[in-house]
Amino acid sequence: MKLGDYLEKELVLPALTSASKAEVLAELASALKSGTPSFDLDHAVNVLLEREKLGTTGIGDGIAIPHGKLEDLDKIRVVVGRSVEGIDFEALDFKPCHIFFLVLAPEQVAGLHLRLLAQISRLLKDENFRKEFLEAEDDGTLWKLLKNA
Asked: Is 113 a catalytic residue?
């Protein structure tokens, strides 16, 4: 499985502007609205917030992998975001998050959804990858890094 196969250039947000967990979830999810007019942004954000109540998806090392399932999606969607300033995401290590991988999957897709989350986790354990991600100078450099992941 290659993460790059699930990415779209317009769903890579190199400069998030949000200041809170709820805001960043909405900012990430809203990227899906432009390519999918029927996408219910409010519902998606509510699903993500409900998932966060079960336990934070801020896994530490500046990383958050919010995820959820939506019945009206036709395929798994991944939105990647970067916050230079960092966002308090109630991470397990109590540090701000800078790297965000939002994964939304259709209700009926369980195995693939879990494999993709595992692949993202493995990739983000690589300290060199995280460093390159955070230091990417422009959108093109960040896209190239992600597409080849």
From this structure: no
